[in-house]
Amino acid sequence: MEQTSLFELAQQLQPKLTNWRRDFHRHPEIGYEEVRTSGIVAEHLKSLGLEVTRHVGAHCHPPFVNVCLHGLNKLSAGCALPSAQGMK
User: Fold this and answer.
1) How far is it, in rounded angstroms, from Cα 8 to Cα 39?
2) At residue 40, does pLDDT exceed 60?
3) CA distance 68 to 53
4) Cis amide prior to 82 (ω within 30 degrees)
5) β 52-54/67-69 pair status
6) Helices (H), 1-88
7) How far apart, in whole angstroms, are the C-alpha atoms of residue 35 and residue 66?
8) pLDDT at 56 over 90
9) Which has fewest Cβ within 10 Å: 2, 39, 74, 87?
């Protein structure tokens, strides 16, 4: 089995990330009201198999407004929720 380097993975992601950045800039949203942006992020995270809870709290850090992930403290720590560690 061949290993892929982190650099190679980053290169593979670059076109998708560039398209997202351009799309987000074409459709700007007011700070802390990033409904469209957070929806796109939430759908992508769901497609990766992550559990996403939407429309919770109002003080998450962009682009995670209204998107908190169960069990991922780095992201859920930015939301107005207690730690999601151990939640089911």
Assistant:
1) 28
2) yes
3) 6
4) no
5) antiparallel
6) 6-26, 35-47, 73-76
7) 8
8) no
9) 2
5 phi and psi, to 5 degrees? Answer: -75, 160
pTM: 0.57
Higher pLDDT, 34 or 86: 34
Residue 52: which H helix or E strand, with range? Answer: strand 52-54
- For tokens 């908190």, the residue is 68
Read off the pLDDT of each residue in 61-84 and give the average, rounded to a whole number.
47
**b/e code 26-49 from CB counts within 10 Å (16+ = b):** eeeeeeeebeebbebbbeebeeee
Average pLDDT over residues 46-54: 88
